[in-house]
Model the fold of this input.
Amino acid sequence: SNDYRVVVFGAGGVGKSSLVLRFVKGTFRESYIPTIEDTYRQVISCNKNICTLQITDTTGSHQFPAMQRLSISKGHAFILVYSCTSRQSLEELRPIWEVIRETKGGANELASIPIMLVGNKCDETENREVSAAEGEAEAKMWGCHFMETSAKTNHNVKELFAELLNLEKNR
Ligand code: GDP
Ligand code: MG
Done:
């Protein structure tokens, strides 16, 4: 089908919704509004075809396990977001990554699924708890790609989604 489904996971407050809204609507807000679960659709061109990019912004760590497995089984690509200002938020991603690994089958299959580990809020240099090198090392261990972003300053946001689509094309 011409549907490309991206699922965004990560702890509450790391900036999942902000990244998605920055990409889809070009906006940013300072206030924190907890998300239930939202899906955004965008028509894009890929491989000279028209396809629908569907981005699911999840609630975070408190998502029901059954919902989590359903989102994972339907997803083509995953964005795992932590905040550079919180080591805890990086640690909270590991169980989600493990469920993705279990749900998506063997190592070969997993290697072909675009997964991006994203350190958001890289603009908050004074409050940084996780260095880029640490994020990159973690991504290497998980066998996934890595990027630092800021939804606030719009750093690497377009690039994040472009890179995911690129990984999909090349697999
Ligand atoms: P979510 O729970 O993961 O969806 O997080 P939100 O997108 O709702 O963002 C939580 C809070 O972090 C909000 O107050 C945002 O304004 C703020 N925030 C999100 N992204 C960034 C960022 O890149 N830099 C900074 N400084 N703040 C951010
Ligand atoms: Mg949210």
